Amino acid sequence: MAYWALVVPAERYAAERLYRYDTLDVPAAGRGAVSPGDGVLLVAAGEPPMVYAAGRVTNAEGGLLIAYTRRSVDAPHPAVGLDPGGGDLVPLREADFGDLAARLAPAADRRSWLVSLDLPIEAESPAEAVRQFWAYVAELGPRELPAFVAPVADELAMQAYVLGARTDLDPEDDEAD
After folding, report:
1. Are strands 39-44 and 50-59 parallel, antiparallel or unpaired?
2. Of these four, 27, 98, 144, 177, which has the most CB atoms within 10 Å of its CB?
3. Whether 34 contacts 63, CB under 8 Å
């Protein structure tokens, strides 16, 4: 078994923060050097590069398919001692892989959340309102539409999130600017 760091472009990391995927498909990576079962650290490109997940290669035919084993997408840590260089795939020693992977935040206990998206829509029927709703969601998406999140049984703690980050939607704050 070999160990690798895969540098993920900033745009792809942003997508990984928005949607939960079980795997990461990287069509142009690998090129025969990586084998199924190899360990991979996922590093978001940037300054500094940040380790945000670990996984195992499940397929290396024509690219890489990596199954996540541990994620810390919302709390990545600097890739200390790792020089991702200009390439997208960097070999790692087992000890370095273990040290960097151990810094990923442990999985938190799962709990139930209420997540909602409310849009006022004018339409001639309930069915048409639903069609318009899904059209707006597809068009505007998570970059523009706030989702409202609260723990179950604590709706008063509701917070708005845009792009996976908490945001303040208080119109009085806009007037102060």
Report:
1. antiparallel
2. 98
3. no
CB atoms within 10 A of CB 23: 14
> Judging by beta carbons within 10 Å of its beta carbon (0-12, 13-18, 19+), is residue 99 exposed, middle or buried?
middle
| HSE of 134, CA atoms in CB hemisphere, 13 A | 5
132: left (phi over 0), alpha (psi -120 to 50) or beta: alpha
% of the chain beyond a pLDDT of 70: 90
* Domain contains 13: yes
- What is the end-to-end Cα distance of the chain in Å, rounded? 56
Of 94, 89, 148, residue with least CA distance to 116: 148
107 in a structural domain: no
Structural domain containing residue 123: 113-176
> 10 and 60 in one domain?
yes
Q: Give the predicted TM-score (pTM) of the model.
A: 0.75
Q: For residue 59, what is the domain's CATH number? A: 3.10.590.10
User: What is residue 61's predicted lDDT score, i.e. its pLDDT?
Assistant: 79
Same domain, 149 and 170: yes
Q: Residue ranges of the chain with pLDDT lower than 70?
A: 28-32, 83-87, 171-177
Q: Look up residue 47 and give its two tokens.
A: 């300054």
